[in-house]
Design a protein that fits this description.
The chain is an alpha+beta fold and about 120 residues long. It is about 35% helix and about 10% strand. The protein has a 3-stranded antiparallel beta sheet, with no helix packed on it.
Length: about 120
C-alpha cells in the first residue's frame, strides 16, 4: 500500500522507521530483496532531539491499520522491544562478569545502545 506518512527514510545512511513496502528495502543497491516489514525502536519523547543519525521517533501505522492490528498492538510491540533491550543488558552483564577484569568496561560501551537502531 502506498501510504504517505507511514515511513521515514534516510537513504544516505540506510535508516528507516515505519512501514517498509514490499521490495522497498535492500542491503545492497543492486539487489532486490523481496520482503515487506515494519521498523521501529526506542520510543523517543516528542520533544527529544536525536544525538545520533540512527535515532528518530517511531512512525506508527495510521489509525485504520491499528484498528485491524488490535487496540494493544503498539503497546505489545513496545513491550517486546523493551524486554529485548533489558535481556540484552542482562546477557552483557553476565558476559562482563564471566570475563572478570577483561570485561569490566564492557557495560559502559553499550550504554544508550537501545536508542540507536
Amino acid at each position: 500500500k502506498n501510504c504517505a506518512g507511514c515511513s521515514v527514510r534516510n537513504a544516505s545512511i540506510g535508516f528507516q522507521r515505519g512501514y517498509i513496502p514490499f521490495a522497498g528495502e535492500s542491503g545492497l543497491a543492486n539487489v532486490l530483496e523481496v520482503k515487506e516489514g515494519f521498523c521501529y525502536g526506542f520510543e523517543w519523547p516528542a520533544e527529544a532531539q536525536p544525538e545520533h543519525p540512527f535515532q528518530a521517533p517511531n512512525v506508527w501505522p495510521p489509525a485504520e491499520a491499528l484498528e485491524a492490528l488490535g487496540s494493544d498492538w503498539r503497546r505489545r510491540m513496545m513491550a517486546l522491544f523493551n524486554s529485548t533491550a533489558r535481556m540484552s543488558g542482562e546477557v552483557l552483564a553476565a558476559l562482563a562478569e564471566s570475563l572478570g577484569d577483561a570485561g569490566a568496561g564492557l557495560p559502559a560501551l553499550c550504554e544508550g545502545g537501545e536508542t540507536i537502531s
